[in-house]
Inverse folding.
């Protein structure tokens, strides 16, 4: 159905939207884009950045809600002629809320978001991938737990409840933790040794947490040998990445005013603001040469001097922020075809700006309510214009003028549910060699309890499914023991921010290894369930 035909049908139902007629369920979705300066392709050794973390909605609106906060997509850099097949594979993820989040709150969580070729599998963290059927791994063994000080829940890495505007620092750099392999799963295709490692910079934890096994990216080439060497296990990253906020669903409702105009109501949507009323959202997007960390770690593993883990800013470049931005946010009902959906007049109330040469944000107009460190977008929008000129523009309504159907619209599914627990297998690689200590519990701010056990690093299930021999895993064990001894959680790794305050992790995720297991052992979550009330 064409948009204008659909809206005309709504208006024809009654010139005043009757209280007995339910509003049309709708949604707001789209992208907010952050242009940033291009850099030389030599900076293909990973990235870091600081992004604001905040409660986009005051209350989680149910299982359809899905949106990231500001994040990026890191693809392998492919040289030469453009290919007809897109070879989609990357590391994306970031802060946000997802439809498969089982223990959601207003506070965002972080996922890793690795994608194997054309979404054959994806990996969001240790033990978290595509689906929950452990007979079909699909990325659930793709992420290795590296840190002995942070336990990673399968539902995503929690921030401290109440986080609102603080900066969450993260980035991915490759480490030579494994060795290149000439064969993959016994097939004559190679696997590289770039272990893309997640580094965090928060107020309560600094340093590497997890990494993707190279096999996650190369495994699909066993069936397509002509693609060998084209993925992130081997290739440098493309440093000129998109930086956007991807929103797939914010609940809305569509109705009509007494004068026949079509209006929409959205769930109150907020952005953080500082004391000056500015919304600071992205800070210091930095790309690195591989030399920023790779060479020093390689020499260390070969018997050379200890690498301190500090990512060398001399091998990095900070992307310029020109202070521009764009939006494709739209409001529509499910019946409206994609090419007929009407955009929100974002520029009418939000102005992108550069707080400095490396910091992006918005300044909001008078129609945006500002209080308690948050700017709340207009709740009501009216449809104006036709065709490509049509826009949803902010509308101020007195309470008496709000159609009853819109006023009473639920704007989401708030039914109380008991989430299904995440449970890992209890046999196979989970039991042999098996954990050395536990179970232990961590009670999180999202209302869940995580059960975890301590495994010797090389024996954790992910590494038993990484196409590594026993000798490979023992070599990896020795290297990680060096990291555990020297790369502690209090030290600086990523270049620090020059403004703002850092966010905190949920304090329950910060753990202490049991006595005797301080080096070479890691916590692995084996269950996450709702806390019994």
């Amino acid at each position: 159905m064409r948009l204008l035909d659909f809206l005309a049908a709504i208006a024809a139902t009654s010139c005043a939207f009757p209280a007995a007629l339910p509003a049309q369920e709708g949604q707001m979705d789209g992208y907010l884009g952050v242009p940033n300066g291009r850099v030389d392709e030599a900076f293909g050794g990973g990235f870091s950045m600081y992004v604001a973390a905040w409660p986009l909605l005051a209350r989680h609106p149910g299982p359809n809600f899905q949106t990231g906060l500001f994040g990026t997509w890191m693809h392998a850099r492919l040289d030469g002629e453009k290919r007809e097949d897109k070879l989609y594979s990357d590391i994306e993820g970031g802060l946000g809320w997802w439809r498969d989040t089982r223990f959601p709150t207003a506070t965002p969580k972080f996922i890793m978001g690795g994608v194997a070729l054309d979404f054959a599998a994806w990996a969001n963290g240790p033990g978290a991938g595509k689906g929950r059927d452990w007979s079909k791994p699909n990325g659930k063994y793709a992420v290795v737990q590296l840190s002995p000080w942070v336990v990673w829940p399968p539902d995503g890495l929690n921030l401290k409840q109440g986080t609102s505007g603080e900066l969450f620092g993260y980035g991915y750099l490759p480490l030579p933790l494994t060795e290149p392999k000439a064969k993959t799963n016994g097939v004559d295709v190679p696997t590289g040794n770039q272990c893309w490692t997640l580094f965090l910079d928060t107020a309560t934890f600094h340093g590497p947490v997890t990494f993707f096994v190279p096999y996650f990216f190369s495994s699909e080439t066993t069936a397509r040998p002509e693609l060998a060497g084209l993925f992130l296990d081997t290739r440098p990253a493309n440093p000129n990445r998109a930086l956007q906020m991807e929103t797939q669903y914010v609940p809305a409702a569509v109705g009509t005013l007494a004068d026949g105009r079509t209006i929409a109501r959205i769930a109150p949507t907020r952005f953080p603001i500082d004391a000056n009323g500015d919304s600071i959202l992205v800070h210091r997007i930095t790309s690195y040469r591989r030399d920023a960390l790779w060479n020093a770690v390689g020499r260390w593993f070969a018997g050379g001097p200890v690498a301190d883990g500090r990512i060398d800013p001399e091998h990095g470049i900070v992307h310029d922020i020109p202070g521009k931005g764009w939006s494709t946010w739209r409001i529509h009902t499910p019946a409206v075809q994609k090419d007929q959906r009407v955009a929100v007049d974002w520029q009418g109330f939000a102005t992108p700006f550069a707080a400095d040469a490396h910091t992006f944000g918005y300044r909001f107009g008078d129609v945006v309510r500002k209080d308690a460190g948050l700017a709340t977008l207009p709740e009501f929008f009216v449809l104006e214009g036709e065709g490509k000129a049509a826009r949803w523009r902010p509308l101020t309504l007195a309470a008496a003028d709000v159609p009853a159907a819109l006023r009473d619209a639920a704007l989401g599914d708030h039914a109380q549910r008991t989430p299904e627990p995440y449970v890992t297998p209890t046999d196979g690689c989970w039991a042999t060699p098996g954990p050395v200590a536990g179970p232990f519990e961590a009670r999180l701010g999202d209302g869940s309890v995580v059960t975890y056990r301590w495994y010797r690093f090389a024996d954790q299930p992910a590494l038993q499914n990484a196409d590594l021999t026993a000798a490979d895993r023992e070599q990896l064990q020795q290297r990680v023991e060096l990291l555990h001894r020297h790369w502690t959680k209090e030290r600086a790794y990523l270049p620090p921010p020059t403004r703002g305050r850092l966010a905190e992790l949920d304090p329950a995720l910060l753990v202490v290894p049991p006595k005797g297991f301080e080096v070479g052992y890691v916590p692995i979550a084996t269950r996450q369930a709702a806390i019994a009330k």
The chain has one domain: 34-250+277-328+351-366+423-530. Confidence is low (pLDDT under 50) at residues 6-21.
